[in-house]
Amino acid sequence: MIAYLAMATGFLLILIGFYGALTNRNLLRMIVAFTIADSGVNLVIVAVGYMRGRTAPILDATVPAADAAARIIDPVPQALVLTAIVIGVGVTALMLAYAYRLYEKKRSLDIAKFMDLKW
Amino acid sequence: MIKRVSVLLLLLAVGAIFATLLAGYEADPELNLTARYYADRTAADIGAANIVTAIVVTYRGLDTLGEVTVLFLSAAILGLVLAQGRKREQARRERVPAGELLTTGTRILAPLIMLLGVHVFVNGHLTPGGGFQGGAIVASGVLLLLLADPVKHFAHGLIAAVESLAGIFYVAIGLLGLLLAGGFLDNRFLPTGELGALFSAGAIPLIYSLIGLKVGAEFSAILADLSDTEEL
Asked: Among positive and negative, which fits the CA dihedral B54, B60, B62, B67?
């Protein structure tokens, strides 16, 4: 149930992010929309690794190494999401830098003002 | 109008795909083959209590090196893009000083935040967390310093030195693994020790601490670069 709830929330966040990126004309709002979609993707991937009644993939007194395979959830999606979050930060920072340069050039953040690559 | 409708149609189509995915999803009752391998072998092979750390730092260590490189590249490009065509003198404009509350709060909190960040990445092989998380916490301490004292010129040189030294040592440790143990970034050229002890899991604490320093320095550089753009 929790997995479905988390997954549905993640898909919803992706849709909200797409909607925001497609309908907003302000570059900063588009960047925020992209980060929302990004969080949604991460949430979905983590939810895929969830298994009912199991615990975090960390070995200790309550999760001995001998029967770890029966006690822990899938560690692979968590490792993937760790990578995805870090790369997401880098992408967001780059988008912000480009938005800044574009604003410097045209003194506007409205995407409709940037016609150079439009045909 | 047409644009709105097409956006709505696109969202409906994507939403339909998501709904099918969600409806067809069934949680695995057992771990899949890859996850089972990691669960069974981590304690004996790597000696790290945190299996996610074992995957990120050792099993898929090369990917993590690539990830750190991507982060470095984005920080470098950001610095390049923002520095282009900017006059250095113009950037040193008068700024409003931070309030009493923020300045005093920073004096108490910034060292504690940095300490927490170091704690998180030094214990990355034992507890949830690790180099990336700890580095992000360290950078949030740097952000607090930037907010409290925006007039002070930030030590770009120190950040760059920490970042490049951590990167060099990271690759050097990887090469040591190649020479003394099974392969590039193999952690077992140091004793794996007792599961759950601070000095265990071979070179993982070393590698993750270096990653923590590198990520912290990269995020700090990004923050410092972005904060230099304030005067527009």
From this structure: negative
